[in-house]
Structures are given as C-alpha cells and as structure tokens.
Amino acid sequence: MAGAIRGRCHxxxxxxxxxxxxxxxxxxxxxDCRRWHGHYxxxxxxxxxxxxxxxxxxxxxxxxxxxxxxxxFCPECGSSIFKDNKDGEKIVLSVGALDAPxxxxxxxxxxxxxxxxxxxxxxx
Length: 124
Ligand SMILES: [Zn+2]
Ligand SMILES: [Zn+2]
Known about the structure:
Blueprint lengths: L4 E4 L6 E4 L6 E4 L2 H7 L3 E7 L3 E5 L5 E6 L2 E5 L6 E5 L5 E5 L11 E5 L14
Parallel strand pairs: 3-10
Antiparallel strand pairs: 1-2, 2-5, 3-4, 4-9, 6-7, 7-8, 8-9
Bound molecules: zinc ion (ZN) (2 copies).
C-alpha cells in the first residue's frame, strides 16, 4: 500500500499515523458524538496495532464520555481527534483530522434513531 495515513489536531501539537487499512466513513448520530463534536461525527476505524502517536502523546488528554468510550483531544486547540471504545483492538479516528487525500468514502450511518431533527441522514 501507499505510505502511512496521517492525522493531526488543528494546532498540530498532536499528530499520529496509521500503518494499515482504515474502514470507510461511518457517521455516528448518537447524542454523545453530536454533543462532543457539535454535530454528527464522521469516523474511520483502524486497528490499534497499526496506530501510532508520532507527536504530542504527552499533551494528549482523554475525556471519559461514557463507561464504554473515551475521547482523545488536544488541550491546546480542543480538536477531538479520536475515540477509544476500550475494546483494546480498535481506534476510532475523526476523519476531519486526516490529511488529504484520504481516499475514503461513505460506508454507513449508525445510531440513526438518535439523530438530530435539524438534518437529513448523509449518504442516503
Ligand atoms: Zn491541537
Ligand atoms: Zn456516537
């Protein structure tokens, strides 16, 4: 495959790379994601084994958004860059933080029943 996929927060203090495949883009409409991101979230999932923080791991902060998930963010700029579902296998990346070109495409919506009433489902 081509080189590693890279992502970073807005200010660049925290940077990471993925040395493997990502899933397609998953839009999560759950209340936790909408409140945390300000709108529904767009994610791609990678294997934790392929994931490496290349800069700023000492700065990274985690927010426990529920018993099943914690969200990694940059305390300098506030970017929500990934989510850990605490399964020990996967890391859920915010696709907006990825460097272009991502070569990713829409995969699916999840938690559609929790979607806001102010938009229609993407990708439909
Ligand atoms: Zn930052
Ligand atoms: Zn969600």
